[in-house]
Each structure stands twice: as structure tokens, then as C-alpha cells.
Amino acid sequence: MFRIEFTDAQPELQEEGWYGLGGRVTIGDHVEEFLASLSLWNREQYEQHWREAAVRLLNGEERTAFFTSAFQFWWAMWQDDGDIRVHQELLFADRLRELSESWDVRCVPYKLLQDYRRTTEEGEAISEWRLGIGDIEMFLAEQ
Questions:
Q1: Number of C-alpha atoms within 13 angstroms, CB side, residue 8?
Q2: How many CB atoms lie within 10 A of CB 132?
Q3: Which end of the chain is more exposed for a tag (fewer CB within 10 A), N or C?
Q4: Rounded mean pLDDT of 53-68?
Q5: Element housing 58 (H / E)
Q6: Which is more confidently placed, 112 or 51?
Q7: pTM recorded for the entire structure
């Protein structure tokens, strides 16, 4: 099962002065709450992005990602031997620097998705979840 959704109806002002909207990601039995920053994107932009990211996999793209906080956190997915491998990633500033200054913040930088890896550069296993393409199809059907 795959689901990504907002659980809050209204944004809340955070102590740091930005608005956030609570949500939840479900990947199989794993459930994780998130707080999406509304500094760059609004609710509708996130939801449109999530549908677009899912369609990419259904259209045969090798990789995609679902932002839970625009340009900070995403769930990266790769097609691999009939499975979809899923990693949660924090996007550090060095990766974001790869974007040109003229890049449009409304567009998702899928080019920042790296090749699929099972281990870190230090040889440590990367936390990973697995889905099937049917999970992505069901997600889109519910939208």
C-alpha cells in the first residue's frame, strides 16, 4: 500500500514564522507523519506533484520522488527488478546547488534523483521499503 496525504485541514503557523500543513505517508506497514512547509508550495501544488510523481512510474520512468517538504525532504522511488524501492531522503544544499539560477521553483527537480543504491558510500545499508506498481496504481485511483 502507498498513500501520501495531508491530514490537517488548515495550515498552522510554526514558531519559526512559517506555515506548515501536517500529513502522512504510508508505505506498506510503515506510517510516518510529516509537516510540509508552505513557504514555496501550497497544498494544491503538493497534491498535483504527488499525482505527477506517481504517473511518472506508471509511464515507465525509472525513478521519481514525492516531496513531503518542498526542496527539503522527499521519498525517492526507483523501479528495480519488478519492485519499486523506496528511500526517504533529505536534500542537502550541495545537491540543490546543481539547479541553475533560472530554475523555476514550481517545477520538481527530478534530475536531482541519484542512481539507486542499496548502501551508503561507507558501505552501510540504506533503510528501504518495497512497493509494487499496483500500489502506485491504487494511489492514483484514489485521487
A1: 16
A2: 14
A3: C
A4: 95
A5: helix 43-58
A6: 51
A7: 0.89
3-state helix, strand, coil in the chain (%, to 5): 20, 35, 40
Task: Give the mean model confidence (pLDDT) for residues 103-117.
Answer: 75
Give Cβ neighbours of residue 113 (< 8 Å, ≥ 6 apart).
Answer: 63, 64, 65, 76
The Cβ of residue 135 has, within 10 Å, a number of other Cβ atoms equal to 19
**Which class for 102: exposed (0-12), middle (13-18), buried (19 or more C-beta within 10 A)?**
exposed
Match 503557523 to its residue by C-alpha cell. 13
Asked whether the predicted pLDDT for residue 51 surpasses 70, the reply is: yes
DSSP state letter for 50: H
22, 5 Cβ separation under 8 angstroms = no
Amino acid at 37: S
Which of 29-38, 46-55, 86-95, 113-122 is predicted least confidently? 86-95
Amino acid identity of residue 15, one-letter, is E
How far apart (Å, rounded) are the C-alpha atoms in residues 140 and 32?
20
Q: What domains are defined for the chain?
A: 41-141 (3.30.2450.20)
How buried is residue 116: exposed, middle or buried, by Cβ count under 10 Å (0-12/13-18/19+)?
middle
